[in-house]
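Researcher: Sequence recovery benchmark, item below. Answer with residues only.
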């Protein structure tokens, strides 16, 4: 394919499109070659025909955009993560419409962890051995914090996500914001200092460190030792909301709770006002029902007591009447009259009841009392 030029006098002039196309034609003549670098910013989607990633030179920081057909990438089954060092075979190409240089890959080979990733793995093992990531040191988040500390970058989208999430769920929440540098030189120290300042606020009961998604390099400060130790020694519980869900900086392991996104962090630190109101409504209804049942039971108990009190005098009189009848019967059984009715008699001499036959003399007179009437008799004989 020939690239056409125009002439301005004796000058041969190419349009931008022609120039870009000429470069693209030249690059397509170059042989297939291998490029070594660290994989960063890898993006794959089932709806895309290509997988996009960047190759980074760890020594100089130089970057090269690259693509590979998605089906070919999936067939390799590499499961690459940011920071891994690879060898990529392919051809250089230019996207003529924008004059953008890229590398069309045909295959990828892993050659080991990138320098940064290897350093992070070494630091991870060291800090884990110290117990900074231990589950038993994780603290629960307060249910109703007096104030929420938020550490984020200036004008960051993560800041807006956190604030909107907190205020929409619990408008009465008090938020203390500390802005800091979140990437680049000096970022680790700045992040650690900001977390220290916000966590020592007298009202702050929980802190959120938020940063939106970014490249592997952008998130490196959150895997630095100074930041991880700041998370581990923070006097209040810390929620890490750094990067996207697939990102796992070391600060996530040291935090008391990891949130997949800044918005998710907001849901973790404050309750939902509408849910609280609904729960209070349910509790109020339960209390009303419980009080109504208690009053009903007490009313029934009082009615039963009233009935018993009304019947008590009658029952008492009846019991007393029965007791008197029993006493009368016992007295009647013990009465001398009762004995006389059974055929016995009382014999008196001189008005004194006789108990010994010798107390009476023959010819003497005695009075005999019977159950019905009495009589006087003369003693004819005394037998002993």
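Model:
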């Amino acid at each position: 394919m020939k690239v056409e030029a125009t002439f301005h006098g004796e000058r041969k002039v190419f349009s931008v499109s022609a120039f870009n196309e000429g470069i693209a034609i030249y690059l397509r003549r170059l042989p297939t070659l291998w490029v070594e670098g660290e994989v960063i910013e890898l993006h794959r989607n089932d709806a895309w025909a290509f997988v996009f990633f960047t190759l980074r030179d760890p020594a100089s920081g130089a970057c090269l955009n690259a693509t590979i057909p998605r089906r070919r990438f999936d067939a390799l089954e590499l499961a690459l993560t940011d920071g891994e060092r690879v060898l990529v075979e392919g051809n250089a190409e230019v996207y003529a419409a924008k004059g953008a240089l890229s590398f069309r890959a045909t295959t990828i080979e892993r050659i080991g962890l990138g320098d940064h990733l290897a350093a992070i793995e070494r630091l991870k093992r060291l800090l884990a051995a110290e117990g900074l990531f231990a589950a038993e040191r994780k603290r629960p988040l307060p249910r109703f914090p007096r104030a929420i500390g938020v550490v984020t970058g200036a004008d960051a989208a993560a800041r807006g996500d956190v604030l909107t999430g907190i205020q929409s769920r619990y408008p009465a929440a008090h938020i203390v914001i500390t802005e800091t540098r979140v990437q680049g030189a000096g970022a680790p120290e700045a992040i650690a200092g900001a977390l220290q300042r916000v966590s020592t606020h007298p009202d702050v009961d929980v802190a959120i460190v938020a940063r939106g998604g970014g490249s592997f390099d952008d998130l490196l400060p959150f895997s630095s030792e100074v930041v991880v130790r700041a998370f581990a020694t923070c006097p209040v519980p810390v929620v890490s909301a750094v990067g996207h869900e697939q990102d796992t900086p070391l600060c996530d392991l040291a935090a008391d709770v990891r949130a997949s996104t800044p918005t998710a962090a907001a849901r973790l630190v404050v309750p939902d006002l509408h849910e609280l109101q609904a729960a209070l409504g349910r509790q109020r209804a339960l209390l009303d029902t419980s009080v109504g049942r208690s009053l009903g039971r007490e009313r029934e108990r009082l009615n039963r007591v009233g009935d018993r009190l009304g019947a008590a005098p009658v029952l008492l009189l009846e019991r007393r009447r029965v007791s008197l009848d029993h006493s009368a019967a016992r007295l009647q059984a013990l009465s001398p009259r009762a004995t006389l009715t059974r055929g016995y008699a009382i014999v008196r001499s001189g008005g004194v009841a006789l108990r010994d036959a010798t107390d009476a003399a023959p010819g003497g007179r005695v009075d005999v009392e019977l159950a019905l009437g009495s009589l006087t008799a003369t003693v004819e004989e005394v037998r002993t």
